[in-house]
Design goal:
single chain; Ribosomal Protein S5, domain 2; Alpha-Beta Plaits; four-stranded antiparallel beta sheet; 32% helix
């Protein structure tokens, strides 16, 4: 049976400012996205017909609400494909955690089926399909580090240097991105944080400046409801992280370390307090 295996990475947001709400229901944002070396593994096997998803992750939806399913369905519909696919998802990225696992799975299935079914779609053609599926999906086609505007899918690749080292704490609950955006307070058009500081810090490769420039507007909505996020940020800083931030709509929290050795030291201390802690680093463009 013909099959394709593909790694589907997580992301963190080093910066996330939320701007005005759009007519399509999304918000305009300015964000810096960074893939990290935490992966779901995906196996695609060609079948005679239909779409079937298998996973050992008990709470993972396996039908049309799953972006991997949507990716296969979109390709079959647009290109009139009669063949089917069995999708096996070995999940390591926590669900609804601000790490983009679902979007990454959707992008990975688009790329994988392009190979499995010998579709020979160009990057631009796959990108257009990815944009239909969600704001974060296009980013995962190329990965690496990028500046995102609009819904987050107007992407400008950024230099991959410096490599960043992360200690990430995943909490045992989910946060809805829709809820987080809807519960932001204040005038989003006036109270705006400039992205220039972190772009300058990344250009300088100064980890301390990068840490000081981390920002996520969605913390204003999520932390009042889940104050443990703020406590984890404080703990990461106490242990020597140069900066700490909630990723995306949360609740995952990461700290940036000055180098891999310091990251290992922080990881060794904080993993005693939490069930899911990851030692990660930047993942370049694939």
């Amino acid at each position: 049976m013909k099959e394709v295996r593909i790694e589907s990475p997580a992301k963190v947001n080093l910066f996330l400012e939320v701007l005005e709400k759009r007519e399509d229901g999304y918000h305009n944002v300015e964000t810096i996205l960074e893939t990290v070396d935490l992966f779901d593994d995906i196996i695609l096997k060609e079948t005679k017909e239909g779409i079937e998803i298998e996973s050992d992750f008990p709470s993972l939806p396996l039908g049309r609400e799953n972006l991997a399913y949507q990716a296969a369905s979109l390709l079959k519909e647009r290109l009139k494909i009669k063949r089917g696919v069995q999708i096996t998802l070995d999940k390591r990225i926590p669900l609804a955690s601000g790490l983009g696992g679902g979007s990454s799975n959707g992008a990975s299935v688009l790329l994988g089926l392009n190979r499995l079914w010998d579709l020979n779609l160009s990057y631009e053609e796959v990108f257009d399909l990815a944009r239909e599926m969600g704001a974060d999906v296009p980013f995962f086609l190329r990965k690496g580090r990028a500046l995102g505007r609009g819904r987050g899918d107007e992407l400008q690749p950024l230099p991959q240097s410096p490599t960043l080292y992360f200690v990430l704490v995943s909490l045992g609950f989910e946060v809805s991105a829709k809820w987080a955006y809807e519960n932001l307070k204040g005038d989003l058009t006036k109270e705006r944080r400039s992205i220039r500081m972190i772009l300058s810090a990344l250009k300088s490769s100064n980890t301390e400046k990068i840490g000081n420039s981390l920002y996520n507007r969605l913390e204003e909505a999520v932390i009042p409801r889940h104050p443990q996020i703020a406590r984890i940020k404080e703990r990461l800083l106490e242990l020597g992280a140069k900066g700490a931030l909630m990723s995306g709509s949360g609740p995952s929290v990461f700290g940036i370390a000055e180098d891999d050795k310091r990251a290992e030291e922080i990881y060794g201390k904080i993993k005693k307090d939490f069930e899911k802690v990851f030692l990660l680093e930047s993942l370049g463009i694939s």
